[in-house]
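Students often ask why inverse folding is considered easier than folding. One informal answer: many sequences map to the same fold, so there is more than one right answer. In these notes we will look at a single instance of the problem. The structure comes first.
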C-alpha cells in the first residue's frame, strides 16, 4: 500500500497516533503504509538533519566526537593488522544504525517540540529495549559474519605476511591487486546492502511506535522495494559522507555522523505513514 509523499511533512506527523512512550502504537505484524517519494528526497533529509544538528548542536556533536574517537581507536589498535582494521572499520558502518539511536531521539524530540534531559536521550533504547535488543543482535551477527568473510578474502589473496595500514593503502592503488579490490568490494557491498535494507527506518520506527523488530525490519525492506531509486541514492550519500569522515583522519565523522543520524529520522518520517486507526478508534 502506498501513498504519495508531499515535499514537507507536518510537525504533527511524529506524534500522530501517539499514546505514550510505553504503549504500543502498531500491533506486532501490522505493517504501516509505505510512501512513494521523489528522487530528491535524500537531499531534503540532509537539510532537515542539518537543521536538527545545529538546533541541538551540543548533544549532536557529543555523538559526533564519540564516533570519531571510536574510529581513531580502531585504526590505532589494528594499525599493524589491516585485515582486522578494514573489517572493523567496515563493521563500524554496519553497526551505525544502532550507534546513532540517540541522534534519532533528538530529532524525534524536535519534531514533537519536546526537550528531555540528555541522560534520557542516552538511555532511550529502554523505551523498546526488547525489540531494539533483537535488532542490535541481528546487526552484531551480521558484523561477525562480515568480519570472518573479510579475513577469508584477505587470506585468499595474501598468502604471506598481511600488509600494514600504509602498505595496504599503497597496494590497493596497484593495478595488480584489482582482483582483490573487486572481490573485497563485492563481498562488502553484499553485507552493506543487506544491513541497509533492514535498517532504513527500523530503529526510528521502534522508537516512535514501539514497533516489534521483525515488522520494523520488514517495513524497511518494503520501503527500499517501493523506492529503490531514492533509497539507493540515500545509501550512496551515507557511504560517501562516512568515507569522507574516515578520509579526513576521522575528524569529518564529528559532523558527518550526526548529520546522517538526524537525516535518518526524517527519512523515516517521509517513508513510513501512520497506520490508519480502526473504525471507532481515535
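Output (designed amino acids):
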Amino acid at each position: 500500500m502506498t501513498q504519495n509523499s508531499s515535499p514537507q511533512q507536518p510537525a504533527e506527523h511524529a506524534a500522530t497516533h501517539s499514546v505514550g512512550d510505553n504503549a504500543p502504537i502498531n500491533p506486532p505484524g501490522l505493517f504501516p503504509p509505505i510512501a512513494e517519494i521523489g528522487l530528491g528526497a535524500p537531499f531534503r533529509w540532509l537539510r532537515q538533519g542539518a537543521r536538527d544538528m545545529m538546533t541541538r548542536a551540543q548533544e549532536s556533536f557529543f555523538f559526533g566526537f564519540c564516533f570519531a574517537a571510536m574510529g581513531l581507536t580502531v585504526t590505532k589498535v589494528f594499525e599493524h593488522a589491516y585485515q582486522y582494521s578494514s573489517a572493523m572499520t567496515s563493521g563500524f558502518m554496519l553497526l551505525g544504525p544502532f550507534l546513532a539511536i540517540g541522534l534519532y531521539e533528538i530529532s524525534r524530540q524536535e519534531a514533537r517540540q519536546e526537550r528531555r534531559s540528555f541522560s534520557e536521550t542516552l538511555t532511550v533504547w529502554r523505551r523498546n529495549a526488547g525489540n531494539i535488543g533483537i535488532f542490535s543482535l541481528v546487526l552484531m551477527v551480521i558484523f561477525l559474519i562480515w568480519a570472518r568473510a573479510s579475513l577469508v578474502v584477505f587470506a585468499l589473496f595474501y598468502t604471506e605476511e598481511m600488509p600494514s595500514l600504509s602498505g595496504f593503502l599503497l597496494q590497493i592503488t596497484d593495478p595488480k591487486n584489482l582482483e582483490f579490490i573487486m572481490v573485497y568490494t563485492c563481498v562488502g557491498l553484499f553485507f552493506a546492502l543487506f544491513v541497509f535494507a533492514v535498517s532504513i527506518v527500523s530503529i526510528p520506527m521502534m522508537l516512535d511506535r514501539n514497533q516489534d523488530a521483525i515488522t520494523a525490519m520488514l517495513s524497511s525492506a518494503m520501503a527500499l522495494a517501493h523506492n529503490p531509486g531514492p533509497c539507493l541514492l540515500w545509501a550512496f550519500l551515507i557511504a560517501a559522507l562516512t568515507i569522507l569522515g574516515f578520509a579526513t583522519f576521522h575528524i569529518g565523522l564529528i559532523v558527518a555522523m550526526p548529520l546522517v543520524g538526524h537525516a535518518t529520522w526524517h527519512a523515516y518520517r517521509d517513508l513510513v505513514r501512520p497506520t490508519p486507526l480502526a473504525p471507532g478508534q481515535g
